[in-house]
């Protein structure tokens, strides 16, 4: 099962220890074959909406900075519970904040 884990931006500035712990965590998940992709996301982005034949393109940002998704990890695990446990470990490393886990369907 694949899951997309996203995290919202934080008011807390990262310190050197966070980078070290996160690198260790990413290295572990990569070696285990669990981590498929990870990355940070730009704050703005582009929103596209369609209505009939009309497609509207709008430059961001769209939400308050604290509501914007700041990063993601795509993982492949055996169960939802395993995805939740990995997200718990992530939250313990980065501290206070919010993450969302969603199952990814399809090939």
Report on the structure:
- Pfam families: YCII.
- By secondary structure, the chain is an alpha+beta fold.
- The protein has two helices and six strands; from the N terminus they run βαββββαβ.
- It has helices at 16-31, 80-94, and strands at 2-8, 35-40, 46-51, 54-59, 69-76, 99-104.
- The strands form two sheets. A four-stranded antiparallel β-sheet has the order 2-5-1-6.
- A hairpin with a 2-residue loop joins strand 3 and strand 4.
- The longest helix has 16 residues, at 16-31.
- The radius of gyration is 16 Å and the shape is globular.
- It starts with a strand and ends with a strand.
- The model has no long low-confidence stretch (mean pLDDT 90).
Low-confidence stretches: none
How are the strands of the biggest sheet laid out side by side? 2-5-1-6
Based on secondary structure, the structural category is: alpha+beta
The gross shape turns out to be globular
Oligomer: single chain
Number of strands: 6
Fill in the CATH topology: Alpha-Beta Plaits
Q: Per DSSP, what share of the residues sits in E-state strands of 2 or more residues?
A: 35-45%
What is the CATH domain class?
Answer: Alpha Beta
Q: What's the order of the H and E elements?
A: EHEEEEHE
The tally of domains stands at: 1
CATH superfamily: Dimeric alpha+beta barrel
Largest sheet: 4 strands, antiparallel
CATH architecture: 2-Layer Sandwich
State mean pLDDT (0 to 100 scale).
90
Give the N-to-C terminal Cα separation: 10 Å
Pfam family, one: YCII
Family: Belongs to the YciI family.
Domain YCII-related: 1-90
Protein name: YCII-related domain-containing protein
């Amino acid at each position: 099962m694949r899951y997309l884990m996203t995290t919202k931006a934080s008011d807390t500035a990262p310190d050197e220890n966070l980078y070290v712990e996160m690198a260790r965590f990413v290295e572990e998940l990569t070696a285990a074959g669990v981590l498929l992709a990870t990355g940070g996301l730009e704050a703005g982005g582009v929103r596209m909406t369609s209505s009939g034949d009309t497609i509207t393109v709008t430059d961001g940002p769209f939400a308050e900075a604290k509501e914007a998704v700041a990063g993601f990890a795509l993982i492949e695990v055996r169960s939802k519970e395993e995805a939740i446990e990995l997200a718990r470990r992530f939250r313990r490393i980065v501290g206070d904040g919010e993450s969302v886990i969603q199952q990814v369907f399809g090939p």
